[in-house]
Amino acid sequence: MIAKEITAYNNAQAAANKAICRALATEIDAALPKAENKVWHGGPVWFLDGNPIVGFWVRKHGVQLMFWSGQSFDEPGLASNSEKFKSAVARYESKDDINLKDLKRWLRKSKTIQWDYKNIVKRKGKLLRLKP
């Protein structure tokens, strides 16, 4: 179930971004039904066992979708977002830019390919891969 604060975030966006945000939230929530979700660091984020998995933010030119462990998915549609961490992003300027087949595949991978961001502070910035 999508948190009320995420629905409010989505509804507060301009028309084109609102459509993207609603579509992403619906697909993410359907693919990760056991995930906790909330607005975190200014955007909607889904967590499995306290570990951030996927989120999105409205940016100057559309919506940025980020998978915390996305670089490990080995997917051409995701661009590296960090040299230090394992995040990867996709950007959308319209709802039609969302390739549902790709998004669903990335969401399936996000359940099993995870780096432990939950404990990154405790490990002083070191990321460890979680086992499925």
Description:
With 132 residues, the protein is α+β, with helices and mostly antiparallel strands. It has one domain (4-130): Aspartate Aminotransferase, domain 1 (Alpha-Beta Complex). Helices cover 29% and strands 28% of the residues. It is built from 3 helices and 8 strands. The protein has helices spanning 4-11, 15-31, 100-112; strands at residues 36-40, 43-48, 51-59, 62-67, 79-80, 88-92, 114-115, 129-130. It has a 6-stranded antiparallel beta sheet with strand order 1-2-3-4-6-5, covered by helices on one side. Strand 5 and strand 6 form a beta hairpin. The model has no long low-confidence stretch (mean pLDDT 96).
* Count of domains: 1
Q: Tell me, what is the CATH class?
A: Alpha Beta
Our measurement of the CA-to-CA distance between the termini, rounded to an integer number of angstroms, reads 24 Å
Class from secondary-structure proportions: alpha+beta
Residue stretches low in confidence (pLDDT < 50, at least 5 long) are: none
- Average pLDDT confidence is 96
Per DSSP E runs of 2 or more residues, the count of β-strands stands at 8
List SSEs in N-to-C order.
Answer: HHEEEEEEHEE
Might you state the CATH topology name?
Answer: Aspartate Aminotransferase, domain 1
What Rg do the Cα atoms give? 14 Å
Overall morphology: globular
Strand order of the largest sheet: 1-2-3-4-6-5
| Proportion of strand residues | 25-35%
Helix content: 25-40%
Biggest pleated sheet: 6 strands, antiparallel
